[in-house]
Amino acid sequence: MIRRPLPLLLAPLCILFFLLAAPGVPPAGAAEIVKRVGSVTFRVDTTWAFPGGVVVVRLGSRGRLGSAWALLDGRRAPFYSERGVPRALVPVPVDAVPGPATLGVEIAGRRGEQRIPVGLEIAPRTYPARDVPLAEAQRALLKGGEADHDARRLLGWLRTESRTTPGPLFAPVGPAPAVGFGEARAYGGAGPVESRTDTVHGEYHRGVDYVVPPGTEVRAPGAATVLFAGPLGLSGETVVLDHGQGILSVLMHLSRVEVNVGDTVARGVRVGLSGDTGLAPEPMLQWRVYLHGVAVDPAVIGLQLG
């Protein structure tokens, strides 16, 4: 099913608001490392190389390149074509240690596989700590194996790598501050919550929270295919969107879902209404963006794809 997009006049305004409202995102600047090995040129943009950010790698070659991957801290990011240029978006997890790091680029060709190391610096970025109280009914959701089962299902969707070219992303709701990404969260002694949502290590908050009235329209942040639409134990009514090339949005705590698995949605299409399902501490929408299975700041991805 193809759904109609947000009116074209509103879309640029939403993108502008999203970029202006994103907390803690530094302005872009020139921070490129260039390395040449043989006929291949490696361009590594470290502007956003901080915990929760993204390292952007582009390749140039006088000859034809084979398959290529970029690796950082053991995580693999494939190269995809960006206007004819191989580009890899490499996630930097929130719990990455600031300081010197080595990015590896693997290229498979007729002469076998070659790995080129590129030294870079992971800049520091501080995230606050926050304690989130849970009601007794919410604590009950953490008991039993259903939450863990749902987390494994979610992780499977987050590993999706489709070849669709992703377009720009914008905030899924109207004017409301985006807060919470990267926070070290405790849930009133309830034990691990964040890691039990997606089975990824660490209790840092994966998404940005929009505190909005129940029933607020929630729109697709970008063109996508719906991978999941329905209830999950801890995130409540949830929509998982595949934007392509390892970039996925997860919209959580909805009161109503209005899309189905397999739907193709345009940027700005309404996918549901906000609510307080799952472990939402108040009526809200939570938006997560995962890059190759790693949660990153949605504002950073928005800048890379805009």
Question: Briefly, what is this?
Answer:
The chain is mainly beta and 306 residues long. Helix content is 14%, strand content 40%. Strand 7 and strand 8 form a beta hairpin.
Which structural class do the helices and strands define? Answer: mainly beta
What's the number of helices? 5
Any idea of the CATH topology of the largest domain? Glucose Permease (Domain IIA)
Assign a percent range to the helix content. Answer: 10-25%
What is the strand content? 35-45%
Describe the structure.
A hairpin with a 2-residue loop joins strand 5 and strand 6 (75-78). The chain has helices at 10-21, 136-141, 146-158, 194-198, 298-305; strands at residues 2-3, 32-37, 40-45, 54-61, 68-72, 75-78, 80-82, 85-91, 99-109, 112-122, 129-131, 184-186, 207-210, 217-219, 224-232, 236-244, 247-257, 264-265, 270-274, 285-291, 294-296. It has two domains: 2-22 and 127-305, Distorted Sandwich (Glucose Permease (Domain IIA)); 32-122, Sandwich (Immunoglobulin-like), CATH 2.60.40. The protein has five helices and 21 strands. It is mainly beta and 306 residues long. The strands form four sheets. Strands 1, 13, 14, 15, 16, 17, 18, 19, 20 and 21 form a ten-stranded mixed β-sheet that branches. The chain has a five-stranded antiparallel β-sheet with strand order 2-3-4-8-7, with no helix packed on it. A four-stranded antiparallel β-sheet has the order 6-5-9-10, with no helix packed on it.
